[in-house]
Design brief:
By secondary structure, the protein is an alpha/beta fold. Helix content is 44%, strand content 15%. A seven-stranded parallel beta sheet has the order 3-2-1-4-5-6-7, sandwiched between helices. α1 packs across α7 and α3 packs parallel to α4. It starts with 9 loop residues before the first strand and ends in a 7-residue tail after the last strand. The model has no long low-confidence stretch (mean pLDDT 95). Bound molecules: 1,4-dihydronicotinamide adenine dinucleotide. 1,4-dihydronicotinamide adenine dinucleotide binds next to α1, β2 and α4.
Length: 253
């Protein structure tokens, strides 16, 4: 770990109370950033505060729902006039519901959290990044961004959509110093199982066909945080619009 990698930088991390967001907040704070984390889950926020305190790592945590424009505005305001890094990590799954079974509420919530949330956060930080001459946005997408065998239809559609968001930001704002990249994890050991429990068993069984070949053991969240941190850093200064599969090879199955 490079303890000065992000020294002097301000980073916003969403979904910071669990899993990959928690690991990203921890890692980036240890690497020198002022980290402002948010999450919608109050219980998880309390547990995360305890984790950060145990490790003597300073992370500013606040309750915010990435689907709420008011919450997004409030979150970005806490950074005052400087955001160097945005890590869009918050996300939920869709109970492996295939199209014939998906209900509107699941579709709307999954699209709101996984696609509209990163859009709102990214839109909010763009003016601050432009004013300072650049910045880095890293969005946690998924193996489900490039194939259909990792989830139900809503999650797959949301994570495919996120790639369009990531590339559009890279294309339009790259010349002004803003880099936008995506990390695409395979299975990771986190709390996301709450929205992953299959409601339609055959759909999950089909997904497991490819998962079992190449991604039998879920990765540790910090392995994904490592990729997020690198893409956010100046070491990745020539990487823009990239989609980095970080899936133990599952994508090759
Ligand atoms: P997690 O469930 O452990 O953590 C996600 C956090 O996001 C939770 O603390 C949750 O409360 C928070 N969150 C959910 N909705 C929110 C909202 N509207 N506003 C603010 N915070 C919200 O899940 P995990 O696995 O760490 O997920 C992080 C990202 O990684 C997600 O985007 C997920 O789609 C992606 N991912 C996860 C994989 C896995 O196997 N765990 C595989 C591929 C991608």
């Amino acid at each position: 770990m490079d303890k000065s990698r992000h020294t002097g930088k301000v980073a916003i991390v969403t979904g910071a109370a669990n899993g990959i967001g928690l690991a990203t907040a921890l890692r980036m704070a240890k690497e020198g950033a002022r980290v402002i984390g948010c999450d919608v889950n109050e219980h998880a926020l309390a547990a995360a505060r305890a984790t950060f305190a145990e490790q003597a790592v300073e992370v500013e945590l606040t309750k915010a729902d990435v689907t709420s424009q008011d919450d997004v505005d409030r979150l970005v305001a806490t950074a005052a006039d400087r955001v160097d890094v945005l890590a869009n990590v918050a996300g939920i799954m869709d109970f492996f519901l295939p199209l014939g079974d998906v209900d509107d509420a699941t579709w709307d919530r999954v699209l709101a959290v996984n696609l509209t949330g990163p859009m709102r956060l990214s839109r909010a930080v763009i003016p601050l990044m432009l004013a300072r001459g650049g910045g880095a946005i890293v969005t946690v997408a998924s193996k489900a961004s490039v194939s259909a065998g990792a989830s139900g239809v809503a999650y797959t559609a949301s994570k495919h959509g996120v790639i369009g968001l990531v590339k559009s930001i890279a294309y339009f704002y790259g010349p002004q110093g803003i880099r936008s990249n995506a990390v695409l994890p395979g299975a990771v050991a986190t709390a996301i199982g709450a929205t992953a429990a299959p409601r339609v068993p055959w759909a999950m069984e089909r997904a497991q066909l490819s998962m079992a070949t190449m991604n039998p053991t879920p990765a540790d969240p910090d392995t994904i945080a490592t990729a997020v941190s690198w893409l956010a850093s100046d070491e990745a200064s020539n990487v823009n619009g990239a989609t980095l599969l970080d899936d133990g090879g599952w994508g090759s199955a």
